[in-house]
Amino acid sequence: MPNESPELKKFIGAYPAYLNTKSIDELRVKEYSRLDRGEHIYLDYTGGGIYAESQIKKHQQMLAENVFGNPHSSNPTSLAATKLVEGAREYILHFFNADPNEYVAIFTANASGALKLIGESYPFSNGRYLLTFDNHNSVNGIREFAHARGADVTYIPISLPDMQVDASQLERELAQPSKNGNNLFAYPAQSNFSSVKHPLEWIEKAHAHGWDVLLDAAAYVPTNKLDLSKIKPDFVPVSFYKMFGYPTGLGTLIARKSALAKLHRPWFAGGTITVASVQGDRHYLAEGATAFEDGTLDYLNIPAIKIGLKHIESIGYEVINQRVYTLTGWLLDNLTQMKHSTGIPLVRVFGPTTAEGRGGAVTVNFYDKNDKAFDHRFIEAEANKVNISLRTGCFCNPGAGEIALGISRVELDVCFTSPQHHDRMTIDDFRLCIDGKSSGAVRISVGMVTNFNDVQALLSFARGLLS
Ligand SMILES: Cc1ncc(COP(=O)(O)O)c(C=O)c1O
After folding, report:
1. How far is the CA of 105 from the centre of ligand 1 (A)?
2. Which of the four CATH numbers 3.90.1150.10, 3.40.50.20, 3.50.50.60, 3.10.20.30 does domain 6-48+317-463 have?
3. For the whole model, what pTM was predicted?
4. Ligand 1 mean position to 113 CA, how many Å?
5. Taking Cα atoms as reference points, which of 351, 331, 359, 49 lies closest to residue 190?
6. Which of 4, 103, 173, 378 is least enclosed by beta carbons within 10 angstroms?
7. Rounded CA separation 259/273 (Å)
8. Counting atoms of ligand 1 from 1, which one is nearest the CA of 112?
9. Which tens digit of pLDDT belongs to each residue from 322-359?
10. Which residues lie with the beta carbon below 6 Å from any ligand 1 atom?
């Protein structure tokens, strides 16, 4: 590279694989130039991906040149829409290497919509719901359905500093499925808090003891290949905007047909039945995915999923992976070396401090020279001033947050049982309850089209907090 800065030289020296990802720099100029035109330092890829201009153009052209009607009728415009919707469904399975004889792809509004479908339909009675502390709230929320149907709900803790799951406790619990009911085990392939990649080997361990496995892939698939010919989770929720930015409002539940057959939908709707009768007070659910897709599908946007998946394929997960690995490594190496004049480190990382076994989200809190944490809202406000988009708070992952921030069960019990919090509690009430502790963290997330300059801008911002 000509005009290499000394820092870039050092980076390449430490992470030579970055050079294999040059195609992303070219792509960024061609397809994502609005990032640099707007002087954006976008570091919230775990929040949402960024779309390429060509995705929008291809989709727009498709809409401009064709006439699409509500699918699943025999008229020509309906058939045109059906063809594209079913084409996108097939492509999702192809993309994840899922055998169509074994898996189905159900269209949902997002990963949360996919998770709710499982929660409301899973036959929990007399069963167990086992999940890791490290989970998004939309996975935690399934426990309400489990409780309502009398299932046992068990959480497996994670521990500091690496935010990994206690494997021995997990194995103990997996070895004790309910003998009288169904058993569902849920965990994220990649944490949206710490970015830890949890072992995919757990899927078969759980299967061996008779558990169904819900693998939350929402934070994993934007930068990692999920190959459903090699691993066989029963339920996989995904949000497409996290993978390729556009369209928002669409996700999928990829489900194994055998596990899907266990689910009982609590209602029926337009589109989900073969026959429903008013006077007969009966309905018959359709087979497979159709039974889970309420009402009219988002048939104008669904074709954009195929465009997005092809876009990822054209770049290749290997390149994306190397990009994220090298930049995350550099970000971590530098952040963890920064110290105040007093010798106090600037950051504390929640999760692995190297790029191994993790994804591109680096979650930290910043500390002043007296080792007092800066409020995460202050950090966000300061970052906003220099056009850095990052995210702060608990990222809808309270279990990981409570462990990272050292908020104990006792404190939470006191907080939740106090009379004034019986009916309602605001986030400010919660902050008061955990007096003196940080109530959130700062997540800097590197993604598919992040470049060296983005990371350098963040590091320069961090250096500005040193005293
Ligand atoms: C790991 C994980 N699971 C589930 C979700 C929920 O996704 P959505 O908000 O798109 O429904 C998210 C979103 O941040 C996530 O990171």
Report:
1. 18
2. 3.90.1150.10
3. 0.96
4. 10
5. 359
6. 4
7. 19
8. 11
9. 999 999 999 999 999 999 999 999 999 999 999 999 99
10. 110-112, 136, 138, 188, 192, 216, 218-219, 239
